[in-house]
Amino acid sequence: MFCRALSNFRCEGEGWMTTQHNTKSNPLPAFDAVIVGAGFSGLYMLHRLREAGLSACFYESGEGVGGVWYWNRYPGARCDSESIYYNYTFSEELYQEWTWSSRYPGQPEILRYLNFVADKFDLRRDIQFRTRVTAAHYDDDERKWRIQTNDGVTVMATYFISAVGCLSATNVPKMKGLETFEGQWFHTGNWPHEKVNFHGKRVGVIGTGSSGIQSIPVIAEEALHLTVFQRTAQYSSPAQNHELEEAYVQNAKNRFHEMKQSMRESTAGFPYRRSRVSALEVSEEERQQVYESAWAQGERRLSQHVHDHRTGKPVCTEQHACIHRTARGVDRGLHSIYS
Ligand SMILES: Cc1cc2nc3c(=O)[nH]c(=O)nc-3n(C[C@H](O)[C@H](O)[C@H](O)COP(=O)(O)OP(=O)(O)OC[C@H]3O[C@@H](n4cnc5c(N)ncnc54)[C@H](O)[C@@H]3O)c2cc1C
Questions:
Q1: What InterPro entries does the annotation carry (predicted)?
Q2: pLDDT per residue over 269-320, tens digit each?
């Protein structure tokens, strides 16, 4: 029994739904598990529960699958993990069937991938979209979770699986005057589905974290004038994004099992070998070469050469100085850094 069974309950009218009681003659709908959130994690959970023969009820507040990739539709949104690793590895068939276009694909392509997964494993039929879970309490007497949704339904489950992610809630800063502001305003984490037209407009972007850095150059191309409000400067190095060659993709597909194994054995799920060498153990000249080659390849590769590039203060200071030098020496604006 999956979530669709609940459609009977939703048709009974709001008054009925808010007065549901768990009685012997009229028990609440019960499932092995309730899953919340149709991003990477929740979709995989549903697949695994089905494989295990367990019943599940699945709620998602959005209108489609994708999680952060459903919500973050802002101009320039893309991942910064290499695509060939930023995907599922539970099914070799899936891995062989899907081909990424570039090293760091944009949001539309990642969303297409998650929809492809949902279709391939027929996941959507068990997901109740546009439904927000509002409460989950463990009932000691029943030894089950009691889960409530915003449409007044309560269900019981042995397992409550929260796959709500850590970035799915938007944080709109409390700014004086926002409620009376007469222009349009948007939050990158809840971007409209239709294209926002910046042509001929004066635009302000607040913040230069990942989303700001990705969206600023794209909005700047279109807007009449762009002002960026920055509290704290970020370091960003060139992503070195590029289209993937067929031979490279084929090689990754051929090495599926080996790659999966090294991803599982790695610290963060990427099959890069981490160096055990401290940057301070090597000569200054060697360090400079490492920094420059990391800049040329994309920063993430730095951990393959030295292990303390983010933790050792002298190393960070020196590395930042190198980034400053390189950034100043290279005739690139933010646009080419993230293109
Ligand atoms: C722009 C951007 C770029 C990123 N790039 C990378 C990257 O390159 N590499 C990387 O590893 N990670 C990246 N991340 C991190 C990303 O969050 C994870 O990689 C991953 O997609 C998280 O998946 P998830 O399933 O855990 O959660 P999410 O994708 O956050 O999905 C959670 C879902 O839960 C739903 N939900 C939340 N609360 C409720 C509720 N109460 N009731 C019903 N539904 C609810 C939300 O609507 C959402 O759809 C990026 C994130 C963003 C925003």
A1: FAD-binding_Monooxygenases, FAD/NAD-bd_sf, Flavin_mOase-like
A2: 888 777 777 777 778 788 778 777 777 887 666 666 666 666 666 666 776 6
Which H or E element spans position 155? Answer: strand 154-162
Which bin fits 105, alpha (ψ -120 to 50), beta or left (φ > 0)?
A: beta
Distances (CA, A) of 170 to 109, 148, 236: 22, 22, 23
User: What pTM did the predictor assign?
Assistant: 0.88
Contact 70 CB / ligand 1 (< 6 Å): yes
Q: Are 92 and 39 in a shared domain? A: yes
Q: Is the per-residue pLDDT at 96 higher than 50?
A: yes
Domain encompassing residue 112 = 3-162
Same domain assignment for residues 80 and 150: yes
Q: Is the CB of 68 under 6 A from ligand 1?
A: yes
Q: Of 162, 197, 218, which one is at a domain's C-terminal end?
A: 162
Cα(98) to centroid(ligand 1), Å = 21
Instruction: Give the chain's domain count.
Output: 3
Residue 231 pLDDT > 80, yes or no? yes
Measure the CA–CA gap between 83 and 86, rounded to whole angstroms: 5
Q: State whether the beta carbon of 40 lies less than 6 angstroms from ligand 1.
A: yes
165 lines ligand 1 (CB under 6 A): yes
